[in-house]
C-alpha cells in the first residue's frame, strides 16, 4: 500500500468495517492494521462496543476535541462527540455543535490519534478516574489513526495532511462582521451600515438571521422586508458591506413550496422507519430533512444557493445542521399525554419535576435513531450511526456548488455543525454562547483547540449571544475577537443592542480603536494565516508549541498569534492588569490600545503581573521577530495597501515574509501571489533592513515600509524603505 | 435622640414610612434625617418609585450584597434583592436565596450604606452604564443607613454594630459535615459514619435531607426509615456524630396532620386575596405557609423543633424558606390550558418556545403578590412587600425557641433564605451550586462578601450540589472548604457519590490529609472566629482590609483567614501552581498538604507564580504573626486539647491570643472562657517565647506548647513551654 510521504508516522488501526466519512482526504493512503495491534491502549470489545483505555501519567496533558468546553488541557471532564444544538453552554455540557475526535497527549509519552467514527463516543478524560483516559465507542466499526510522534506540532501536521488543508476565506472575511438575531429589514441593515461609516468604525459584513425568510422557509426571502434585494446587495457592496444570510437544514412540509416539492419529487429526504419522509419540527414547524449523505442531494442543495449568489450574495452561514430537532410528532403526542395526565391532577408536588423532564423535547437521541439515510453506495444507514456527518455533508454540498456558482471568487461560508475534515470547506462559529465572562475565557481555549483541528477560520459570537453584555465585557471580548480570524459580533433578539455604539461614548471610542487596530493588523494576520495553511501548523497556537519550559506547558490563557506575537487577553471583570508568563526569549511588551500609539518595553522571560487598563490589550512581540501594520481602513478592500509599518524586536536578526494576493480569487493556488521578505539585522551601526520581493503573476502593491525597530535595551531605530 | 456610641458615623436617611424589618437591633438608635438630605446620591422619586444614582470614578470599587454571584468587586453586573430558589447558578443570575443590601464603595470617595427595604431592589452596578451605580426601589418607603467613613473595616464595624453580632455555633460545627440528598435511612447513615471512623477521616455531623420525612411533611419522621430515632441519635452522638435534619417552610394541606390542624385552628397561615389560607405547591404538593411575621406564629413554629430536640437533635437546616413555590393552582390551571392549546396543534415550530416559557412555573413573582401577612401591630401587608423577611422571621422564630428548648447548649442552625441581620441567629449555606470549577471560584468571593454582611458562619456545598464532580475538583474544593467555618460536603441525588472515599485511593488519602489539617487548625480558627465576632470585623477578609497597596486592592482570589494566615486557593483544573500576590510584609510560605509535614520558605512582597500540586494548598503565614495547631482528632470533642504547636514567622515580635471555652454552652457570654496570650520576640540569642494565661470561670485545658518559629532567613527555632 502506498504511503503518503508526509504521513510517515500515521498508521490506521481499523476495527470492523467502518463507515467512510470522507474526513480523510480520498487521495491519502496509509498503512492499515488491525485494531488489536493498537499500541498504548487497552482495547476491550464486547457486546458490539469498544472501550479504549489509556493510563495517564500524573502530569500528562491531553489536548484536542476541537469545539468543546472546559480547559485547553481536557483532563478532568467528560466529553461526548454527538453534534448537538444546546444553549446555554453550562460548564458540564459534554458536547456542542461539532465533533472533532482528534486528540493528542504530551508528557511522559507523546502521541496523537484521530478516531474516525461519525457518531457518539464518550471521552472520560480523568473525570471518573483521576489518571485514566477511557473512550467508549458504541460500535466495533471504526478507524483509529495513530500519529506516533511526540511533538505536538508534528502531530497536528500529520492530522492536517490526512484531513486536508484549512479553508481560506476571501480576504474581506478578515474584516469585522456585525450581526444580530435579527436585523428585521433592509432599512435597519442600511441604518447599521450607515452608522459604521458615520462613526468611522470599520466593518465588512452584516449578518442576516432567520427572520429574513418567509415563515422560516429555507431559500426564501421576504420581499416586504427586503424589497429589490439584488439592488440592495449591490448598493451595500459599493459601500464595502457584504450581506451574509443564514440557511437552515430543515425543509418545511408545504406543498407548493418549491424546495419541498423538488425534494419530494426527487426523493431527496431522509426516511422514517416506515420508509416515509422523516418528519420533525424546527423553526418553520414540521420539516423534512435532505439526505446529504447522497451526492445528488448535496448537489441539488448546493445549487439552491444560486437564489442568493444570483443576487450578489457571496457568503452564508449554515445553521441548525447538527441537525437540530425541536420534536417529532409522535414524541410530542406522548409528551402531551403524559403532561395532560400529570397536570390534570389538582395536587402536584415532587411530580412537577417530571413535567419539566417530559417537556425537554429538544434534540432527544431517539429522534436521530428514527430515520435513515442512504449512502452513495446505496447502503441504507440509520442516521444515528452517521449523525456527526450531517452538517459535514450539507456544508460539503454547499461548498462544492458555491465554487461553481461563484467562479473565480472565493465563497464565504460558516457552518454551525461540523465533523473532522469540514475545515477544508468552511469556517465554523462556535454557536450560542452567553454574555458571560466565563465564555470569554472558553473562547480562548476553543480558538486554540479548533486550530489544532484545522479550523483556523473560526470565532465565537463576540460579546455573547445569550444573556446581557456589560460595556466592559463587550470591550474585553472585542479585544479578543480582534485576534479571531472570524470576528463577528452577534447576539440574541432578547438581549440589548451590541453594536459598538450601543454603550457610552468612551466605550464606542475604545471599540473603534480596537477595530482600527484589527484592520491595521490584517496584513500581518493574512500573511501568517496563509503561511499557517501552507505549513499545516496552527495559526493560533498555545505557548507549548514553541516553548519547552515547564511553565509554558501549563499556560492556557495566552496564545501565539502567528509566529511573531503573543497575546494575553484580559478575561476577568474590573481588571487593571493580569498575570502573564513570558517564556524563554525576551519580549517587547506592547500594551496595544490604538494603532497610532505604542509604548514598547523590553521584558525578560519570567512571570509578571502586567497592567492592562480597560482600553489596553497585553500583546508581546517576540525577540528577533517582526510584524507589519497598515493604516486602518473602513473595510478590507477600501483601497490598496501601499505602505506598511514594520515593527521589530531585533537583538540579532529577524525576518518576516509579508504575503499578498488579490484576496478574492483562487489565483493563489496557481501561485498568483507576491511575497516580500523583510530582513532586519542588528549591527554596530544600528539595525539594518533589507527586502526581497518575489512576485508571481501578481504585482505587490506595497511600495513603502516605515521601520520601527527596538533592540534589547528598548532603544528605537527608525528607517524607511522604498520598494 | 440618643446616639449609639459605636455608631458615630451612621445616619439613617428615611423616606416615607418604612416597614420595620428588625434587621437593625431594636436597642440601637441613630439620627434619622429625611432622604432628601442624603449626600452623594442623586435621588429621584416618581410614581411611588425611587431611583438612587451615584457616579463612580473610573477605578472606584463597589463591594457588598452578601450572597451574590459575580466578582468580589460587584461592578459590571445587574443584581436584585428578591430571595429566590434558583439553580443552576448561571453567571447572569441576579438574585439568590438571601438579600443583603449592604454595600460600600472605595476609591476616590469611600462610604457604605445599608438599604433596609425587604423587597425587590435593582442594583445596576456599572452594567448598563460603565460608570454609574443605579439603585431602583419600587417604593418610597425605606431606610438608608449611611456609613459615612471611608475605611472598609470601619464601615463593616458600623454595619455590624447596627445589625448585631454574628452567630456563634457550637464548636462541633467547626468540624466537617457530610451530607447527601438523601441518605435514605438510618442504616445508610450508620454505614457512612462507620466508614469515616474506619478510614480515620474526621467528621462531626451528617445531614438528613428531605426524604427522612413522611411525604415531605415538615416535623414528621418516617419511622420505617429511622426506627427508634432517639436511640439512634444517642448512639451516633456517642460516636461523635450529630445528625442534622432539614426543615421546610410549607405545611402540607392534610386534615389530620397535626401541624396543619394546629396552624389552621389558630389561623397561623398566610392569606390569599379572598382571605382564605393561601395555597401553593412545594415538595409535599399543596401547602399553606405559616405567617412568620407574627410573634405567635414564630413561637408556635419554633416550638415544633422540640419534636427533634426531645430526641437529642441539636442542629437543623431551614430550607425552602425564600419561600420556594412550585406553582399556585390557578396559575397551573392557566398554564395547563395554554399548553393544551399549543400542544393540541399538530404543527408547532417557533411556538414551542412558548410552551417552555409557560412551564416556567417556579417562583413566579405574581405568586408572592397573591398573599398577605399580618405584622405584629395588626397591619396586613402584601407578602411581596416583605418577601425578603420570610426566611429571616422563620429562622428568628426557630432560634428563639431553640434557645429555650436547649437550655445552656448552643443550637446549630442554618437557613437557606436570609435577610440582613439573620447573621445574628443562624448561619447560612449558599444553596444549590453545581460541580463547576466556576463555582469553586464564586465560593471564594461569596465567603468574603458574606463575611462583610456578618455571615461569618457560612459555606457552600463543597464539591458542588448539581452536576458531576471530578476527583480533582473534589480535592480542590475540599481544600477551600477547609477554610469555610461551615464545611459541608453535599450533593444532589442525581450525581455521583461525593464522600471522601468515593474516588481513587490517592484522592481518599489527600482528602483525609485535608480534613486532618482542618481539624488541626480548629484551635486557631475558633480563637480567631471568636475574636472576629468580638471585634466585629470579618473572619475571612480580602487583602485590602489589611493592606493599602494598589495591587492588594485588586486581588479577589486570596483571603485572610483570621489575622495570621493568607490563603490562595487553587480553583482551576490541572493546575500545578498559581499566581499569588504577596502584599507589603514578608510571608512564610507554607504549601500545606499534611498537618505533619511543613516546608517553610520566606518570601518577599511581590507577585509570584507558586507551585501547588494537587495535594498542596498555598498558605502564607504573615510576618510577625503566630498560629496554633493541635493534633487532629476524629471529631471536635473526641478529647480535650492539651498540647498545641505554635507556628510563627518572627522577625521582631509577634503575639497570638489563643481562646478556649467549653464550646458548647453560652458561658462565654458571662466570661466563662480562657485566653492564653503567646508572645514571641526575636533577640540576639534566638526567639524567646512567653505566655500569659487569663482564666475566668473556665480552666484552660492546654498544658504544653511546642514552638516552631522561623526568622527572616527561614532559620527554624524550636522550643517548648509547659504551662
From TrEMBL, chains A, B:
InterPro entries: DUF5110, Gal_mutarotase_sf_dom, GH, Glyco_hydro_31_AS, Glyco_hydro_31_C, Glyco_hydro_31_N_dom, Glyco_hydro_31_TIM. It comes from the Bacteria. The keyword Hydrolase applies. It holds the Pfam family Gal_mutarotas_2. One of its GO terms (biological process) is carbohydrate metabolic process. Keywords: Glycosidase, Hydrolase. Residues 644-700 form the DUF5110 domain. Residues 538-624 form the Glycosyl hydrolase family 31 C-terminal domain. Belongs to the glycosyl hydrolase 31 family. This is Alpha-glucosidase. It comes from Candidatus Moduliflexus flocculans.
Amino acid at each position: 500500500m502506498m504511503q503518503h510521504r508526509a504521513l510517515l508516522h500515521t498508521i490506521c488501526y481499523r476495527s470492523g468495517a467502518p463507515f467512510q466519512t470522507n474526513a480523510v482526504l480520498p487521495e491519502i493512503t496509509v498503512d492499515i492494521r488491525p485494531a488489536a495491534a493498537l499500541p498504548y491502549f487497552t482495547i476491550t470489545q464486547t457486546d458490539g462496543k469498544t472501550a479504549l483505555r489509556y493510563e495517564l501519567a500524573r502530569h500528562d496533558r491531553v489536548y484536542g476535541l476541537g469545539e468543546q468546553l472546559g480547559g485547553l488541557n481536557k483532563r478532568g471532564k467528560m466529553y461526548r462527540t454527538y453534534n448537538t444544538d444546546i444553549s446555554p453552554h453550562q460548564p458540564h455540557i459534554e458536547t456542542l455543535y461539532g465533533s472533532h475526535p482528534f486528540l493528542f497527549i504530551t508528557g511522559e509519552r507523546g502521541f496523537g490519534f484521530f478516531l474516525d467514527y461519525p457518531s457518539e463516543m464518550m471521552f472520560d478524560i480523568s473525570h471518573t478516574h483521576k489518571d485514566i483516559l477511557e473512550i467508549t465507542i458504541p460500535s466495533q466499526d471504526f478507524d483509529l489513526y495513530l500519529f506516533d510522534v511526540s511533538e505536538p506540532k508534528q502531530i497536528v501536521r500529520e492530522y492536517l495532511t490526512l484531513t486536508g488543508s484549512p479553508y481560506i476565506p476571501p480576504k474581506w472575511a478578515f474584516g469585522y462582521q456585525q450581526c444580530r438575531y435579527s436585523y428585521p429589514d433592509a432599512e435597519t441593515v442600511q441604518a447599521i451600515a450607515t452608522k459604521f461609516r458615520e462613526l468611522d468604525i470599520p466593518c465588512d459584513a452584516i449578518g442576516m438571521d432567520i427572520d429574513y425568510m418567509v415563515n422560516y422557509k429555507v431559500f426564501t426571502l421576504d420581499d416586504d422586508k427586503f424589497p429589490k434585494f439584488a439592488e440592495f446587495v449591490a448598493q451595500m457592496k459599493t459601500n464595502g458591506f457584504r450581506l451574509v444570510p443564514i440557511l437552515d437544514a430543515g425543509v418545511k412540509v408545504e406543498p407548493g413550496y418549491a424546495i419541498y416539492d423538488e425534494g419530494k419529487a426527487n426523493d431527496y429526504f431522509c426516511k422514517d422507519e416506515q420508509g416515509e419522509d422523516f418528519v420533525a419540527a424546527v423553526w418553520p414547524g414540521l420539516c423534512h430533512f435532505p439526505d446529504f449523505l447522497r451526492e445528488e442531494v448535496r448537489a441539488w442543495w448546493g445549487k439552491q444557493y444560486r437564489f442568493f449568489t444570483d443576487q450578489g450574495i457571496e457568503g452564508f452561514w449554515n445553521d441548525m445542521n447538527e441537525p437540530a430537532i425541536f420534536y417529532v410528532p409522535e414524541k410530542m403526542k406522548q409528551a402531551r399525554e403524559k403532561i395532560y395526565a400529570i397536570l390534570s391532577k389538582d395536587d402536584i408536588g415532587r411530580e412537577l419535576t417530571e413535567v419539566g423532564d417530559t417537556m425537554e423535547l429538544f434534540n432527544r437521541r431517539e429522534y436521530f435513531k428514527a430515520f435513515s439515510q442512504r449512502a452513495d453506495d446505496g447502503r441504507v444507514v440509520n442516521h444515528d450511526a452517521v449523525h456527526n456527518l450531517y452538517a459535514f455533508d450539507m456544508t460539503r454540498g454547499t461548498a462544492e456548488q458555491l465554487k461553481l456558482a461563484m467562479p473565480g471568487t472565493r465563497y464565504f461560508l460558516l457552518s454551525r455543525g461540523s465533523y473532522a475534515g469540514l475545515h477544508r470547506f468552511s469556517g465554523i462559529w462556535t454557536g450560542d454562547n452567553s454574555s458571560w465572562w466565563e465564555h470569554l475565557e472558553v473562547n480562548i481555549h476553543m480558538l486554540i483547540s479548533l486550530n489544532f483541528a484545522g479550523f483556523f477560520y473560526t470565532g465565537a459570537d463576540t460579546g455573547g449571544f445569550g444573556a446581557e453584555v456589560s460595556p466592559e465585557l463587550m470591550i474585553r471580548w472585542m479585544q479578543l475577537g480582534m485576534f479571531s480570524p472570524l470576528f463577528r459580533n452577534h447576539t440574541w433578539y432578547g438581549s440589548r443592542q451590541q453594536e459598538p455604539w450601543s454603550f457610552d461614548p468612551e466605550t464606542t471610542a475604545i471599540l473603534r480603536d480596537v477595530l482600527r487596530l484589527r484592520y491595521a493588523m490584517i496584513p500581518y494576520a493574512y500573511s501568517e494565516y496563509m503561511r499557517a495553511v501552507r505549513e499545516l501548523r496552527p495559526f493560533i497556537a498555545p505557548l507549548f508549541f514553541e516553548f519547552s519550559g515547564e511553565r509554558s506547558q501549563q499556560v492556557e490563557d495566552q496564545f501565539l498569534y502567528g509566529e511573531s506575537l503573543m497575546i494575553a487577553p484580559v478575561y476577568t471583570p474590573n481588571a487593571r492588569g493580569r498575570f502573564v508568563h513570558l517564556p524563554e526569549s525576551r519580549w517587547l511588551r506592547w500594551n496595544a490600545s490604538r494603532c497610532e500609539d505604542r509604548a514598547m518595553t523590553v521584558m525578560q522571560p519570567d512571570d509578571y503581573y502586567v497592567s492592562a487598563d480597560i482600553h489596553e490589550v497585553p500583546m508581546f512581540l517576540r525577540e528577533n521577530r517582526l510584524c507589519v501594520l497598515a493604516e486602518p481602513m473602513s473595510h478590507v478592500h477600501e483601497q490598496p495597501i501601499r505602505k506598511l509599518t514594520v515593527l521589530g524586536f531585533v537583538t540579532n536578526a529577524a525576518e518576516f515574509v509579508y504575503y499578498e494576493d488579490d484576496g478574492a480569487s483562487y489565483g493563489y493556488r496557481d501561485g498568483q501571489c507576491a511575497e516580500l521578505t523583510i530582513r532586519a539585522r542588528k549591527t554596530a551601526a544600528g539595525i539594518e533592513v533589507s527586502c526581497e520581493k518575489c512576485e508571481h503573476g501578481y504585482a505587490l502593491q506595497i511600495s513603502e515600509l516605515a521601520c520601527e525597530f527596538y533592540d534589547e535595551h528598548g532603544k528605537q531605530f527608525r528607517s524607511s524603505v522604498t520598494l
